[in-house]
Amino acid sequence: MIQEVVSVGLPVDERWKIIKNRIEPESGTRPDMKRICIVTGTHGDELEGQYVCYEVARRINEHKELLNGIVDIYPALNPLGIDSITRGIPMFDLDMNRIFPGSNTSATAEFVAAQIMNDMSGADMAIDIHASNIFLRETPQVRVNETTADNLLPYAKLLNTDFVWVHASATVLEATLAHSLNKTGVPCLVVEMGVGMRITKEYCMQLVDGIFRLMCELGIWKGEAPAVREPIVSRDGHVSFVNAEASGIFVSSVEHWQRVKKGDHLGDIVNPATGEILHAVQADVTGRVFTLREYPVVYSGSLIARVLEEYEEDAEND
């Protein structure tokens, strides 16, 4: 059932309207019934979650008799951004994931954020799905704040991602949707995967299996629980950032989630005019490449890759 979460007037007789699809069991709801929120489209250039929402709804509708809880699907928190291929909220020049929890008495964007928070209040779980930007591709991963890791980690491991990145609290902005939900008692997991302005179907299907596995754990889905992979968990932030040391065109020599050893060749930054290699990019640590440059034009300081560090002997024994 399509429901309106919030609708506000805009110039030129337009409206900023956010909807959700509430899917309930055929037999009706009970006061003790669990509820999960699937949220995406906070950034208008992140589209991976669009396919996830479609596939979750499709699978539930195909076997509605197996649903034992409430599933709220929010396909686009920033529909204006999606319509205009803009990361932030057009006209307001705002990153929507920096205005939560919002305020009922503030300007338009903050009012919308407050209404979203109010609508998700009381949920038993929320999954906030993001993609990367157009410059980087991310291996499917869950990101959680270290202050909520003890509570969220068991659920994060069920989402069928390759990696769970436990962030230091200092790196988590308080104005994000996930931080605000967790602070109000709604457990929220942040998923990052893929690349901006694209849909990576295999990543989406991987996450959808994880969502159904999590719904089985919560008692929302009575179907057979999909098998999920055991993710690597980084609790202490052993992540190496590889940045460009020259401006040019980056040509990768590795794949996403590939294991590399310290000193391995990750790619070259080249000068197309002179035929020179300006910078031979190397791995600083032994580990897995979970972030990799997708857009080839780089400038000095541009992020090339992120590598999840592991011990050399572990890599040799795997």
Automatic annotation (TrEMBL):
UniProt keywords, alphabetically: Hydrolase, Metal-binding, Zinc
CDD domains listed in its UniProt record: M14_ASTE_ASPA-like
GO molecular function terms attached to this record: hydrolase activity, acting on ester bonds; metal ion binding
Signal peptide: none
Residue span, Succinylglutamate desuccinylase/Aspartoacylase catalytic domain: 33-215
A Pfam family reported for this protein in Swiss-Prot or TrEMBL: AstE_AspA_cat
Domain of life: Bacteria
The keyword Metal-binding is annotated on this UniProt entry: yes
Presence of keyword Repressor: no
Cofactor(s) required, per the database record: Zn(2+)
PANTHER family: BLL3975 PROTEIN (PTHR37326:SF1)
Name under which the protein is recorded: Succinylglutamate desuccinylase
Species for this entry: Butyricicoccus porcorum
